[in-house]
Structures are given as C-alpha cells and as structure tokens.
Automatic annotation (TrEMBL):
UniProt-listed SMART domains: OMPdecase (SM00934)
Matches recorded under InterPro entries: Aldolase_TIM (IPR013785), OMPdecase (IPR014732), OMPdecase_bac (IPR047596), OMPdeCOase_dom (IPR001754), RibuloseP-bd_barrel (IPR011060)
Residues the record lists as binding substrate: 12, 34, 119, 209-210
CDD domains: OMP_decarboxylase_like
Catalytic machinery residues: 63
Name of the featured protein: Orotidine 5'-phosphate decarboxylase
Gene name of the encoded protein: pyrF
Enzymatic reactions: orotidine 5'-phosphate + H(+) = UMP + CO2
Naturally occurring in which organism (per UniProt): Streptomyces polyasparticus
Record-level Gene Ontology MF annotations: orotidine-5'-phosphate decarboxylase activity
Amino acid sequence: MEPNSPIIVALDFDNRRAAEEVVDRLGDECQFYKVGLELLTAAGPDFVQHLVAKGKEVFLDLKLFEIPNSVAGAVRAAGALGASMVTVHSMGGTGIMAAAVAAARDFACLRVLALTVVTSMTGSDLADVGVNASAGEQVLRLGQLAHRAGCHGVIASPQEAAQLRGVLGSNPLIVTPGVALPGEDPAEHARPGTPRAAVAAGASHIVVGRSVTRAPNPVAAIRLVRADLGL
C-alpha cells in the first residue's frame, strides 16, 4: 500500500498545542502530516501515535545520518509508531540507505525516502562542503544512488522532479518540499515551485507548510492547494 494523499501538511511548530490546533481545524480536509525534528523534540513520539490513532498518515522527517545499525534502529522505531514515511540522508551512502530499507521490511506500510539536497541549498552551498556540482546534478546523482540502494523514493525540490522522474521511472515516490502557491513567498527555499508545477513535473507528493498552517483560514488555504492541483 502506498501513501495515499498527495498533499502533506508540514507541522513545523515548537509545541504540541499549536500543531493539534491546526490538525483539529483542518479535520477531514487533510489526511497526511509531516512531523519534523522540531515538533518531534518538543512533543515527543506520542504525538505521532496520536495522529495515527486519528486515522492520519505521518511523514516522519528524521533525515537520518548515522551508522547503519543506528539508522536501522530508528527506522524500526518509526515503523512501530505507525509512520508511513521516514527519511534518511542519501549523503550517508549506500550502507545507511540499505540498512534503513532492510529495517522497514517489517512494516508493510513504511516507506523509506532518501533526502537528496535540501531545498534551501544552492550550488555555492554545495561548493562550501566540497561538492563540485550544481544542485540539480547532485540531486540526480544521489537520487540514482538511493534507487540502487532500494529506497522507495526521494526528497527533492520541485525543480528537480522532472529529471528525477525521467531517470527513476514511474514507480518511486518523489516528495517535494519547497512548495508555495503562486505569488507566495517561498521563504527559505532556494529552489521552489507551485503545487501544480511540482506534480506536473512528476512529484507524487507535495509538502506545504506555512501556506496552510499560518493562514488565517487553514481550510480555505488547503482547498486552494487542492484547486491548484485540480483535485
């Protein structure tokens, strides 16, 4: 079973109450949420279980980058919480990605996604850490590495989705943060795109954050996202 809803709302909050308020306001309008390191640290793993108990899917964005044994343990913990997706750093190499995939096999609904290049990074940022490639080139290189390691999909910006889809084929998930509605400020994302552009380019899922969670009316905002996708 693949994660169903193409729209993932990022709960980028530093406290559980604020996150719960958004989830309650959205109700049945949203079935899929991203829980990252900030909220997980503030609210604890119990919040993930709370979302799953409410019938929601959870993208647990851990960006795991550790020795393979530790990564495997964290993936098993994510599966036990009921997460639908968990992320590892593709820069960790084949060893940690393969360990994550092996650990996920015990959980039928858990998908391992490899982060390629975070959406705030540019070519100059990569050069700072000794990578002599453009962001797009590095995304493709790491996406192919993740695919060979058995990952179920990758995380990349909307601007790389088309090339990734062309290289990886139709099956892998391509999840795109850095998504904002037309005319909105993409915030810290250096390689943004609109929901429609991301999906048209080949993304299977889009991640929206402040466009929805900080909107005066989150329900109206997510309906705009859905309208942009033609859903």
